[in-house]
Amino acid sequence: MPKTYVTRRVHFNAAHRLHNPQKSDEWNRETFGKCNLPNWHGHNYVVEVTVCGTPDTETGYVIDLGHLRKIIEEKILNVCDHRNLNLDVPFLRGIIPSTENLAIAFWQQLENTIPSGTLYAVKVFETERNMAEYRGE
Ligand code: NI
């Protein structure tokens, strides 16, 4: 059966700081540079969620993208948009909010609400040039 991949792109704005509390301030400054500045900084994040499957014979859809949008809004945007990712988001507590860790955390938030086995990839763009992708591996 032909498999297709459908993607919903969303965006949100949030503040964060990369800081590992187990390490010295000096180590954090050297490792994270400007991303370690104590008073936070912001990003315009873009998230792409890709679902795969065989188009349904009655609708031609792999998933209703309006339905996917609602799931992403509920699980990610309502919780992260205009928030401080280090302080305000329960599912990111204790996690260094790097782009990589955000991709993994967002996947984990989504995976139980999307028909099983069909979530294919979560991409998080921190800038136009920097992106991390997680495929559940
Ligand atoms: Ni940053």
Key structural traits:
binds nickel (II) ion; 3 helices; 137 residues; Tetrahydropterin Synthase, Chain A; alpha+beta; five-stranded mixed β-sheet
Q: Which ligands appear in the coordinates?
A: nickel (II) ion
| Cα-atom radius of gyration | 17 Å
Oligomeric state of the chains present here: single chain
- How many helical stretches? 3
| Low-confidence spans | none
Distance between the termini: 24 Å
The tally of beta strands, per DSSP, is 5
Helix content: 25-40%
- Residues in β-strands, percent: 25-35%
The overall pLDDT average reads 96
CATH topology of the domain at 43-134: Tetrahydropterin Synthase, Chain A
CATH superfamily of the domain at 43-134: 6-pyruvoyl tetrahydropterin synthase/QueD
Shape type: elongated
- Structural class of the helix and strand makeup? alpha+beta
Q: What strand order characterises the main sheet?
A: 3-1-2-4-5
Largest sheet: 5 strands, mixed
CATH class identity of the domain at 43-134? Alpha Beta
Helix/strand order? EHEHEHEE
CATH architecture of the domain at 43-134: 2-Layer Sandwich
